């Protein structure tokens, strides 16, 4: 998956872009860690317990220039993207995803397109 200026996860209707005021420290303050390549990455579990090694994970990678990003919801091992929006039984995970993204929006990291 390539870095894009706008993006969303598989199946979601809302499209996001990085806020113009997003900076390196904004990413770090929101839990992103710097990778060896200089990009910033966040992997956050969508299950009820944050320590859980199982379940789906939200994975967001922001390019080092803080202009482009990619995001997906993956399986626990992070190898396969999944669509949590096709099954009504996944309502809690959908709500958690939107809750996390709304938090990033309120902190000046993302904005809705």
TrEMBL record:
Pfam family, one: DUF1831
Listed SUPFAM superfamilies: Lp2179-like
Highest taxon, organism lineage: Bacteria
Name this protein carries in UniProt: Cysteine desulfurase
Protein's organism: Candidatus Enterococcus testudinis
């Amino acid at each position: 998956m390539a870095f894009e200026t706008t993006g969303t996860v598989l199946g979601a209707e809302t499209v996001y872009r990085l806020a113009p005021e997003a900076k390196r420290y904004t990413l770090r303050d929101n839990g992103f860690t710097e990778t060896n390549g200089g990009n910033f990455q966040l992997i956050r579990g969508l299950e009820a317990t944050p320590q859980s090694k199982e379940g789906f994970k939200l994975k967001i990678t922001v390019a080092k220039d803080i202009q482009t990003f990619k995001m997906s919801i993956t399986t626990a091992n992070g190898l396969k993207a999944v669509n949590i929006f096709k099954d009504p039984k996944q309502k809690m995970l959908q709500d958690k995803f939107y809750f996390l993204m709304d938090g990033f929006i309120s902190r000046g990291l993302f904005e809705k397109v």
